[in-house]
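Chain A, query sequence.
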Amino acid sequence: MTMDKKTISVKAQIILTILFIVGVCILFFIAEENLNSYMIRIVSLIGIFSIMAVSLTLINGVSGMLSLGHAGFIAIGAYVAALLTMSVQQKEASFILMGVAFPINTEALSSIPFFWATIAGGSVAALMAFVVGWPTMRMSGDYLAITSLGFAEIIRIFLLNWNRITNGSLGLKGIPSYTNIWWSWGWLLITLLIIGSFVKSSYGRALRAIRDDPIAAKAMGINVFKHQLTSFVMGGFFAGVAGSLYAHWLTSIDPKPTTLGIMLTFNILIMIVLGGLGSLSGAVLGAGLFAVLSEFLRFVESDITLFGFTIAGISGMRMLVFSALFIIIMIFWQKGIMGRNELTWNALYRTMLRFKRGDKHGK
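Chain A, predicted structure.
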């Protein structure tokens, strides 16, 4: 460490990161031994939501694009991975009305290891992101927001009506419960390593230049279309990964708007705005707060007794609370928790130095 430069050497940062990961793993071991199954599921959900938030932050926060179709990529990853991990018997039991179409009903596309099914779900989602992004990125203005929103709804309607592939409105039941703390947080680590490295690279610097002023970035020789499309496809891939984890956490999925529809995209937007639009670590913090609050606020949807009076619960009241929270943040706290800053070892070190200097001046 160097006091003058207020930075930590790269070697020290790597050691601290390894120690931090080991410490988190120890905490997870302790959690599995001491927490009940409900609390463990919430911890797993935090990891899943964090991947969703980080992948959308890359598109909306770092690249400066406005995508409202993230739920579409999540749905693709969820359905692809679920169909690959379900056994033939599970599919036949789930597709009770019209049967399973070929080749979904074959052994070759059944009971595939969860890791490879997740990779497949992310890859198909990335391919669809490329298909959507290729024509859209050539336009200007808010066309991406409109196109991506329409794409998400098209995917939902497609899932609702392709009965022999997706089982239509009945959805998929009996999905193997593979997602746990290790899968969700392990994939979150991979997501942060890849997207974090991408953001710190020359591509990331170019994306931030495009976000601040696309015309000036283009004048400096930056290929705006290429950089934005790369960011969009990468975000789509990790959205598909999150969809796979989400499906195997829920163990049943359907194309309802509240499950894998536009409401999910709005929830993710709340996460990244709460954490700080443009900050990967802020996205994780926002996702964690959203997951915890969404469970804590369940009491507003059930009957509440105060001073002998019973107030009837209202279904959907949680989303009203979140909507109000979103509006308050947008008005009074637009930068969110982290703004565009990141939680790094250097930032923590400089904070410690400031506190130390403050103590000395206090004395």
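The beta strands are 172-173, 252-253, 304-306, 309-311. The chain has one domain: 36-362.
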